[in-house]
UniProtKB/TrEMBL annotation:
Entries under PANTHER family matching the protein: OUTER MEMBRANE PROTEIN W, PTHR36920
Compartment(s) of residence: Cell outer membrane
Chief location bin: membrane
Keywords: Signal
UniProt signal peptide: 1-24
The name this protein goes by in its record: Outer membrane beta-barrel protein
């Protein structure tokens, strides 16, 4: 029994030893730059608790995005998604009532299905923290929560050009929600919950 256990241990050590040089051939760091289209869900509670839902809308737009990924194994990676503060217009029944800015860093755990292949699809899940600022709604009478914490889901594919460079296509669904206050009283709750469609390039160091 002891001999068989020792054989298994030595066999496992041998596999690890064989894998280390292979992993060492490729850097664990990957940086991507994307152009991303933000498409908000535009869901909201009735304003003042009465009337129709979904009257508040947040404008869609294109933004730049940079993410940094670290591969713990060939299949598993962590990705930090970053951008600069973004300004969005807010409308009520189609009429602009103001704007706000937000910064939505997102941290995701990714699983890559075909690491090392020319076409490598992946999925991810994680958490989003959105900091809302520069709120200017209804000439100062309107307010939004200063932050939002929610889930994030992701699917994408890296298409290799060579050992370092790749083309990336990516889609994310991010949970961003905020209470809307008017003159200090809660008037509605907006569910921005955008879909983010991105395309860009990646570089593996």
């Amino acid at each position: 029994m002891k001999k068989s256990m020792l054989k298994l241990v030595f066999a496992a050590l041998g596999l690890v030893g064989a894998a280390v040089p292979a992993l060492a051939q490729e850097s664990p760091w990957l940086v991507r730059a994307r152009a991303v289209h933000i498409d908000p869900a535009d869901k909201s509670d009735p304003v003042g608790g009465t009337g129709a839902s979904d009257r508040l809308h947040v404008g869609d737009k294109w933004i730049p995005e940079v993410d940094i990924s670290y591969f713990f194994t060939p299949n598993w990676a962590a990705e930090l998604v970053l951008t600069v503060p973004q300004k969005h217009d807010v409308t009520l029944d189609g009429k602009r009532i103001g704007s706000f800015k937000h910064v939505p860093p997102t941290l995701l755990a990714q699983y890559h299905f075909l690491p090392g292949a020319q076409i490598d699809p992946y999925v991810g899940a994680g958490i989003n923290y959105t900091l809302i600022s520069k709120v200017d709604i209804l000439d100062g009478a309107g307010r939004l929560e200063h932050d939002s914490i929610g889930a994030a889901l992701q699917a994408g594919v890296d298409i290799r050009i060579d050992k370092q460079w790749s083309v990336n296509l990516d889609v994310k669904k991010v949970q961003i929600r905020s209470d809307v206050d008017i003159n200090g009283a809660r008037a509605s709750r907006v569910k921005i919950d955008p879909v983010l469609l991105g395309a860009g390039i990646g570089y593996r160091f």
